[in-house]
Amino acid sequence: MRNTLGAALITCVIIGLVAGIGRAVFIGDFARRIDPIGQRVFAALGRRDPSGIDRAARLREVDDRFARHTAATLLHVVPGAAYMLLVPIQLSRRIRSRHRRVHRWNGRLLLVAGTVSTLAGMFFGLGMPYGGIGEAIVVALTGALFLFAMGRAFVAIRRKQITVHREWMLRALSVALGISVVRIVAGVYDLAFSPAGYSLDVLFVWSMWTGWAIAIGVAEFWIRRTRDQWRRATVEAT
User: CA 90 → CA 93, 99, 118, distances in Å?
Assistant: First the structure.
């Protein structure tokens, strides 16, 4: 199971990096640039997308939201991409055990990058939600959870509560990586439900709730599954 989760982690990191870098480079038209890929998948599977002109207008609305706020967009996607790059380092058992100074400084960088990216993301999700109130609610909940989890992890490590620190860091990481899970779910929902006439904004909100529920749920399952093992290892190490 550890190998499966490791593969899922790397996949989410890659998706997050591609999305962050893509939006940073193509701030005003990234969604429209990648949409032809989805259309080719539709065609390969013999699915029909009935949205047509409405789809183009919806994607333009998404892109324009970022184009109108270049600084906020960069504050969201650049630290977000940096966060994704730092995640594997923070989770590396070898670095954690042999290079504790690197682990500590990497954690501090994660805290700063994650906080900046999350606050900028909440600016869009709460101030101008593409998916309406449904998006605003899930952004508020996940954003608050991420900030609380990172803060709780920081306080715990300052108190040398290593197990508590680990668990709250994993919860924070699950929220961050959940953005990539949302994108995967969004692609599946698009293929499954767009031909039935569901609009992109509705599917976007569905994917947000589903994707983050999956990511947070898996993290919580792993935390509970490994809690006793981690506590024993911590006691032996001290």
Answer: 8, 11, 19
Is pTM beyond 0.85? Reply is: yes
Distance CA 190, CA 172 (A): 27
Half-sphere exposure of 221 (CA within 13 A, CB side): 9
* Distance in angstroms (rounded) separating the CA atoms of residues 215 and 185: 11
Residue 111 CB partners (closer than 8 Å, separation 6+): 150, 154
The 10s digit of each residue's pLDDT in 139-181 is 999 999 999 999 999 999 999 998 899 999 999 999 999 999 9
- How many other C-beta atoms are found inside a 10 Å radius of the C-beta of residue 15? 18
Exposed / middle / buried, residue 61 (Cβ in 10 Å: 0-12, 13-18, 19+): middle
